[in-house]
Write a structure and sequence with these properties.
This protein is of the alpha/beta class. The chain has one domain: Spore Coat Polysaccharide Biosynthesis Protein SpsA, Chain A (Alpha-Beta Complex). Helices cover 39% and strands 22% of the residues. The chain has nine helices and twelve strands. The strands form three sheets. It has a six-stranded mixed sheet. A four-stranded mixed sheet has the order 5-12-7-8. It has a two-stranded antiparallel sheet with strand order 9-11. α2 links the parallel β2 and β3. α8 runs antiparallel to α9. The longest helix has 17 residues. It is globular, with a radius of gyration of 17 Å. The mean pLDDT is 92.
Length: 249
C-alpha cells in the first residue's frame, strides 16, 4: 500500500470537553502519514489552550483560528483549503476513530480504486455510554442517498487528487449535501461494514433535532439539488421514515 498523506478536517467550537479524546484517537492511528487541521470557530472556552498543547508536541497537528463564528461548514472549508493530502477525511471535535481506521480505509480505497468511501460506526452519548452501532450500506448511489444518508461524516474520505478539493455549502446539513454532490460525479461507491469510528450523539446537535434536520434536508432537495416538487416530496418522506428508525436498535 502506498503511504499517501491524509488530511484530517476538524472544526472546533467550544470543544474543551472532548477535543483531547478526539486528538488522541488520531495520534493512536497505525497509519502515520497524516496532517490534522483543526479550525477554531471563534471559541470562548479554553479549547484552544488544550489544542495548542498537542500542536507543540506534534507538527502534524495545526490550529487555525477564525476571527468570527461562521459555522462548521465554513470551518471545514478553511481546513480543506489549507490541506495538502491526497485524501480528505473528516473528524468532528467530539468524535473518535478506531486505531486502524485510516490504515484500513486507505487500503480499501486503493485496493478497490475508489475515490469516496465511508464505514459503519459506533454510537456513544456525552458520558461515553455505548448506544449501539450504525451498520451502513455496502453500496450507495445518488438515488439511494436521497432516501437516507448512509455516510457518517466522521467516516467519510474522498480523494482530492481525483475529484479536486470539494467544499461544503453552508446549508445546515452540509455534509449530506457534499455526499450528494460527490455521488452525482462518481455515480456509485462502496463502504466498509466494519465500524471504524465512534459517533458521539450530543443532546443539542442538529442530528439529534429531527425537526431542524428535516428542514435542512428539504432545503437541500429544493434549493441545491433542484429536484422537482414530486421527487422532493417522495424523497423527503422516505428520508424522514429512515431517519426515525436510523439509530433504533
Amino acid at each position: 500500500m502506498i503511504n499517501t498523506k491524509v488530511s484530517i478536517i476538524t472544526p472546533s467550537y467550544n470543544s474543551s470537553k472532548f477535543i483531547s479524546k478526539t486528538i488522541q484517537s488520531v495520534l493512536a492511528q497505525t497509519y502515520q502519514n497524516w496532517e490534522m487541521i483543526i479550525v477554531d470557530d471563534n471559541s470562548n472556552d479554553n479549547s484552544n489552550e488544550i489544542i495548542r498543547q498537542y500542536v507543540e508536541k506534534d507538527r502534524r497537528i495545526r490550529l487555525i483560528k477564525l476571527e468570527k463564528n461562521s459555522g462548521p461548514a465554513m470551518a471545514r472549508n478553511r481546513a480543506i483549503k489549507e490541506s495538502v493530502g491526497k485524501y480528505i477525511a473528516f473528524l468532528d471535535s467530539d468524535d473518535l476513530w478506531m486505531p486502524e481506521k485510516l490504515k484500513k480505509q486507505v487500503a480499501f480505497m486503493s485496493g478497490n480504486n475508489l475515490v469516496f468511501t465511508y464505514s459503519s460506526y459506533n454510537l456513544i452519548d456525552e458520558d461515553d455510554n455505548n448506544l449501539g452501532v450504525f451498520i451502513t450500506k455496502k453500496n450507495i448511489d445518488y438515488d439511494s442517498m436521497l432516501k437516507t444518508c448512509s455516510v457518517g461524516c466522521l467516516t467519510a474520505v474522498y480523494d482530492a487528487s481525483a475529484l479536486g478539493k470539494l467544499y461544503m455549502k453552508n446549508v445546515g446539513h452540509e455534509d449530506y449535501a457534499l455526499w450528494l454532490n460527490i455521488l452525482k460525479k462518481i455515480k456509485t461507491t462502496k463502504g466498509m461494514a466494519e465500524p471504524l469510528a465512534t459517533y458521539r450523539i450530543m443532546k443539542n446537535s442538529v442530528s439529534s433535532n429531527k425537526y431542524v434536520a428535516a428542514q435542512y434536508v428539504w432545503k437541500i432537495f429544493r434549493d441545491i439539488e433542484k429536484l422537482s416538487l414530486t421527487k422532493s416530496v417522495l424523497s423527503f418522506l422516505q428520508y424522514v421514515y429512515h431517519g426515525i428508525w436510523k439509530y433504533k436498535q
